[in-house]
Write a structure and sequence with these properties.
The complex is a heterodimer of chains A (114) and B (110).
Chain A: E1 4-7, E2 10-13, E3 19-25, E4 31-37, E5 43-50, E6 56-57, E7 68-72, E8 75-80, E9 89-96, E10 103-105, E11 109-113
Parallel strand pairs in A: 2-11
Antiparallel strand pairs in A: 1-3, 3-8, 4-5, 4-9, 5-6, 7-8, 9-10, 9-11
Chain B: E1 4-7, E2 10-14, E3 19-25, E4 31-37, E5 43-49, E6 55-58, E7 61-66, E8 71-76, E9 85-92, E10 99-100, E11 104-109
Parallel strand pairs in B: 2-11
Antiparallel strand pairs in B: 1-3, 3-8, 4-5, 4-9, 6-7, 7-8, 9-10, 9-11
Classes of the chains: A mainly beta (114), B mainly beta (110).
Chain lengths: 114, 110
């Protein structure tokens, strides 16, 4: 199984600022995903982070608000820009095993915007 | 647009009882996942179901998939308190991204 780490694990940020979340995987993977889980809710896919190309965003999410980088096959970052209290959520990165179809999730970053 | 619906959304049950969580999805898919989430924690993978009629079991949990009915079930046998958590099903419409159900918050009382 893949071991995924995220930094920071939690943060409290002021309205209007930006936060970059890092995701590191212990093995090379083709596709990485970023999900958001709002308080008491299910998970919603933000975007698919592709190595060597632009991220693919889901409906309702835009690059200006959630820029993503994927510089190599083990690392990705998600930035939450110009934050508002509505951005308070848990942000999780996820990877898929190329061999077993298992999809693994990182420990999450708990973001609170005041 | 793929929709995934779970029921019930909340379930309170007594230890020792059996129960089933249902997961319906709206369009054909080739993968169905079950996850467990404890409060304040990330998601733990329970099962991956890849074909019609697939059945997987781990301890007191058993998951099955009927692709023709677009239905998966997660059956809990002789529940114990440690199984209290939120359970999510998720369906893959292709390209390996997942659409999640709303989650079922399960509370097992002694």
């Amino acid at each position: 199984s893949a071991v995924i780490s995220q930094k920071p694990s939690r943060d409290i940020c002021q309205r209007g600022t930006s936060l970059t979340i890092q995701c590191q995987v212990d093995s090379q993977v083709t596709m990485m995903f970023w999900y958001r889980q709002q308080p008491g809710q299910s998970l919603t896919l933000i975007a698919t982070a592709n190595q060597g190309s632009e991220a693919t965003y889901e409906s309702g999410f835009v690059i200006d608000k959630f820029p993503i980088s994927r510089p190599n096959l083990t690392f990705s970052t998600l930035t939450v820009s110009n934050m508002s209290p509505e951005d308070s959520s848990i942000y999780l990165c996820s990877v898929v095993s190329d061999s077993s179809y298992e999809q693994y999730f990182g420990p999450g970053t708990r973001l609170t915007v005041t | 647009e793929l929709k995934v619906e779970q029921n019930p959304l909340f379930l309170s049950m007594q230890e020792g009882k059996n129960y089933t969580i249902y997961c319906n999805y709206s369009t054909t898919s080739d993968r169905l996942y079950w996850y467990r989430q404890d409060p304040g924690k990330s998601l733990e993978s329970l099962f991956v179901l890849l074909s019609n009629g697939a059945v997987k079991q781990e301890g007191r949990l058993m998951a099955s998939l009927d692709t023709k009915a677009r239905l998966s079930t997660l059956h809990i046998t002789a529940a114990v308190h440690d199984l209290s958590a939120t359970y999510f099903c998720a369906v893959g419409p292709g390209a390996q991204k997942l659409v999640f159900g709303q989650g079922t918050r399960l509370t097992i009382n002694p």
